[in-house]
Design a protein that fits this description.
With 379 residues, this protein is mainly alpha-helical. The protein has 16 helices and 4 strands. It has a two-stranded parallel ribbon with strand order 1-2. The chain has a two-stranded antiparallel ribbon with strand order 3-4. Helix 4 packs across helix 7. It is globular, with a radius of gyration of 28 Å.
Length: 379
């Protein structure tokens, strides 16, 4: 059909890729025919060819046929292109990549997380001590295995959380792009909204396991883990399992929204500025994307630090009844003050740099391995 259309339009040496066609426009074929850039020879438009053009135009209007080698441009505005939502298999690939990168990065940073949580739960004990000093105290007083406390709930919890976080983020982006007409700066709003919606689901799934992790660190041992994670979770009732949900949302929603949007904007800028970096300077791709991930780690860590402190306080065993509610969290935040809410920032920043950089690089590596485009690439 494409070759026939080419012949009926008069043959010649013009490039059919120059046709500018809107696929869903019923008159697209005629627009394409009118937009062909080649010298018009009146002899080309015989009565037979004109009838063929009319027939092909009618066929295109009814069936949506356009030559496959034309550029299909979907537009919302002059500078926005429609995006296509991933199919079911691609959505599962995104979710699997998210599960792998989140569980690997969070489990690998468990020792740093233990140190950070101890500083938040026992500020008097570790007052004036840095990250390495706290680690030395824990190893000396509680043994080296104390730094691995909470590893099992972290592994399982963040595998679940990562699958929802990244899977839903990638699934939600295209319809949000396509349903919102935006100008400059609107891309950030779309990314933030997709991250917020994805993390609301992911954090709800993570909450019981995060509660179990913090409780095991608070209790100073792995007794619950040795009994088995399922048994530890069975000791919780519904209220206790989700008692920290408001606090975990305060921590994880800003963290995920800032992390994913910052990284996507940074990598998009990188590939737009230097689209041939992967072919011209492949050795620079890793450090360049790692720098983008480090920037995302700093932004997400600082924005989510107050929520992280509140989450540790809620699970510390010292909170009063009802402190896990929204009103209780506000009261707790007021009692801690700005300095208290930012307690443990240094240790957590180290942790977030390790987690986020590892997580985002592993995520892109897994995506590339299964045939998905890396974050920020033009595709």
């Amino acid at each position: 059909q494409e070759e026939a259309a080419h012949d009926f339009l008069g043959g010649g040496t013009h490039d059919r890729d120059e046709l500018l066609i809107e696929p869903h426009d019923p008159t697209s074929f005629l627009k394409g025919a009118a937009g062909v850039r080649f010298p018009v020879n009146p002899g080309h438009f015989t009565a037979e060819r004109m009838r063929a053009i009319i027939v092909l135009a009618f066929f295109g209007a009814v069936t949506g046929f356009v030559p496959q080698r034309t550029r299909k441009v979907h537009k919302l505005s002059n500078n926005v292109r429609l995006q296509v939502s991933p199919d079911g298999l691609d959505a599962l690939r995104y979710a699997a990549a998210g599960a792998i990168c989140a569980s690997a990065s969070h489990t690998g940073s468990v020792p740093i997380d233990v140190i950070k949580t101890k500083i938040q739960l026992e500020p008097a004990r570790f007052a004036g001590k840095g990250t390495l000093q706290v680690a030395a105290v824990l190893v000396q007083e509680e043994g080296p295995l104390s730094l691995t406390t909470g590893a099992l709930p972290t592994l399982v919890g963040y595998a679940i959380q990562g699958s929802f976080k990244y899977g839903l983020f990638e699934v939600l982006k295209p319809p949000l792009y396509n349903s919102v007409v935006y100008e400059d700066g609107g891309k950030l709003a779309v990314l933030l909204l997709a991250g917020i919606c994805a993390e609301l689901v992911a954090s709800t799934a993570l909450c019981p396991l995060e509660t179990a992790r913090i409780a095991s660190v608070r209790d100073g041992g792995t007794e619950k883990e040795t009994k088995g994670l399922l048994e530890a979770l069975s000791l919780m009732n519904l209220e206790s399992a989700f008692s920290g949900l408001p606090a975990i949302l305060l921590k994880m929603v800003p963290y995920t929204a800032a992390q994913l949007s910052t990284y996507e904007l940074a990598t998009s800028s990188l590939y737009a500025t230097w689209p041939t970096i992967a072919t011209e300077q492949p050795l620079l791709v890793l450090p360049a994307t790692a720098a983008c991930a480090a920037g995302a780690a700093v932004v997400s860590s600082l924005l989510s630090q107050p929520g992280d402190t509140l989450l540790s306080e809620v699970n510390s065993g010292r909170e009063s009844q009802g402190e896990e509610t929204s009103a209780g969290l506000l009261s707790l935040a007021q009692s801690l003050g700005p300095a208290g809410l930012m307690r443990g920032t240094q240790a957590r920043l180290v942790q977030m740099l390790a987690i986020v950089v590892t997580q985002l690089l592993v995520y892109d590596s897994v995506k590339a391995f299964v045939g998905l485009p890396v974050t920020g690439s033009i595709h």
